[in-house]
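Below is how a single chain appears once it has passed through the pipeline. First comes the sequence as given, then the structure the pipeline wrote out for it. We keep one example in the README because the format questions we get most often are answered faster by looking than by reading.
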Amino acid sequence: MRIVNVSVLNNKELLLHLDNESCKIFKMEEYLEGKVFKPLKDINELKKFKLEFGCIEWECGASLSEDTLLSRSVSEAKSN
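Resulting structure:
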C-alpha cells in the first residue's frame, strides 16, 4: 500500500488516499503538541504540505513518514 494523495479534514485529521483505492484516516491531535508540529494547530498551516514518496512535509519543517501515517491510521471504506 502506498499513499497517493492526502486531504485535510476540518477536524485536523488527514484522509490518506491509497493506491488500492481505499482510504485511511490519520488523527493529528497527539502530534500537535510537539514543538515542530505546533504551527499545524492552525488549519491553514496544516494544509500547506507536499506529499513526496508517501511522506508528508509541511512548510513549517514538520514531517511524517509513510510508515507512521499508515501504521497509526484507521481504515475507511473504499474511495469512489
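The two ends are 17 Å apart (CA to CA).

See the next section for the split statistics.
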